[in-house]
């Protein structure tokens, strides 16, 4: 986005994505982690609720604007850094799968 339409357009896209994330994960903590990465700390009552929200999130993307999603569900999160690391690894697996199937 930044390369083709400029940084202002990229910033507007990130703001629009953040609004959509907040709409789906209304009671979660949503944070921009850096660049184009977001962290969502969701406190859903069940894994099913969490997965349903992820499904809604994954349906937002199009061929022109895609995203890789990494997630981890835990009943009791004791080590936030480890959990973020697991979700980050899953995000890169998802990203590699996307590019492998795209080309």
UniProtKB/TrEMBL annotation:
InterPro entries: Diguanylate_Cyclase (IPR050469), GGDEF_dom (IPR000160), Nucleotide_cyclase (IPR029787), Rev_trsase/Diguanyl_cyclase (IPR043128)
Gene3D superfamilies found in the cross-reference section: 3.30.70.270
Start and end residues of each GGDEF domain: 1-103
SUPFAM superfamilies recorded: Nucleotide cyclase
Any matching Pfam family: GGDEF
Alphabetized GO MF terms: diguanylate cyclase activity
Domain of life: Bacteria
NCBIfam families given in the database record: GGDEF
Protein's name according to its UniProt entry: Diguanylate cyclase
Lineage: Bacteria, Bacillati, Bacillota, Clostridia, Lachnospirales
């Amino acid at each position: 986005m930044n390369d083709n339409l400029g940084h202002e357009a990229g910033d507007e896209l990130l703001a629009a994505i953040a609004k959509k994330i907040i709409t789906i994960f209304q009671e979660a903590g949503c944070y921009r982690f850096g660049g184009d990465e977001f962290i969502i700390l969701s406190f859903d009552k069940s894994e099913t609720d969490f997965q349903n929200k992820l499904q809604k999130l994954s349906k937002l993307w199009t061929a022109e604007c895609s995203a890789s999603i990494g997630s981890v569900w835990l009943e009791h999160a004791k080590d936030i850094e480890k959990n973020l690391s697991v979700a980050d690894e899953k995000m890169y697996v998802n990203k590699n799968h996307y590019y492998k199937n795209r080309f």
